[in-house]
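Sequence in, structure out.
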Amino acid sequence: MPNKREIARALADAHREAEPGISHIIRVVAEREDDSAEPVKLLEVNPDTPRAGIVPIAFGADPPEIPFPSVVIEVTESELKEIQSGSLPLPHGWRLEDTLYPVSA
């Protein structure tokens, strides 16, 4: 079974293909990330999205390809900067982790 990091990468690739305007996709992790019930979480920076703050959108698992539930948070570039500076907090216990897109060389 693929792990959450692999599923996050697959979801990021699919979302980027479906919405080419996305400028960044960052994996978000939680304190209980090892729990299989904890969703795979992606923060997507999209210039076409309205400024709305942190609004997690949940999706169910879709086995066998996507064995974990997932959450997408779509934000603007300025909201990403606010998250990074701490002035716009993610939900309690969530933090930014790997940048999945653009891929670092």
